């Protein structure tokens, strides 16, 4: 008799939480780089890239806030500040999505977004918080958290409901654009 094979867990390389997050920072940086290289004469591409950045940054903040930050709260005091920086990044990203990609304002918002992202991801997380965590947290815990972060990110990316929510959020932002 044919029986359904049990669902195999997704095969993925095991990585520490900090490595998973740094690799996702690279995804965000790549999108930012492409946005900065795309001229005003290609508003459709700029808009599509801004949408992708919106979704990826939203997912990045969710996985950090739901999995990583709570687990690291007792290891470094930097977590509290990081949480509030996420709110600022989200506000700035909203300003970017609202801006018309054919305008100078979009370039200005993009410049502010770039600096805010680097300040948080590079200076605060990669240069300060992550090395501190790697020094004090248990390696096994970091690998377990890495698995959870990867699984959560894959789930968010593949969820149609989440995609629909993000699409709606972007549409609402653009409708309230001044
Ligand atoms: Fe963060
Ligand atoms: Fe991050």
Automatic annotation (TrEMBL):
Secretion signal: which residues? none
Extract the Pfam families matched here.
Hemerythrin (PF01814)
> Which InterPro entries does this UniProt record tie to the protein?
Hemerythrin-like
Q: Where is the Hemerythrin-like domain?
A: 17-132
User: By what name is this protein known?
Assistant: Hemerythrin-like domain-containing protein
Organism of origin: Microbispora siamensis
């Amino acid at each position: 008799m044919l029986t359904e094979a049990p669902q195999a867990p997704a095969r993925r390389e095991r990585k520490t939480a900090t490595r998973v997050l740094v690799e996702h920072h690279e995804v965000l940086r790549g999108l930012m780089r492409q946005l900065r290289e795309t001229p005003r004469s290609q508003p459709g591409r700029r808009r599509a890239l801004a949408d992708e950045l919106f979704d990826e940054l939203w997912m990045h903040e969710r996985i950090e806030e739901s999995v990583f930050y709570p687990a690291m709260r007792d290891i470094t005091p930097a977590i509290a500040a990081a949480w509030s920086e996420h709110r600022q990044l989200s506000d700035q990203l909203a300003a970017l999505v609202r801006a018309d990609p054919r305008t100078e304002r979009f370039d200005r918002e993009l410049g502010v977004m770039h600096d805010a992202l680097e300040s948080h991801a590079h200076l605060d997380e990669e240069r300060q918080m992550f090395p501190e965590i790697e020094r004090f947290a248990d390696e096994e815990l970091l690998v377990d958290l890495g698995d959870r972060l990867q699984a959560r990110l894959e789930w968010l990316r593949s969820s149609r409901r989440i995609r629909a929510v993000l699409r709606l959020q972007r549409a609402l932002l653009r409708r309230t654009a001044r």
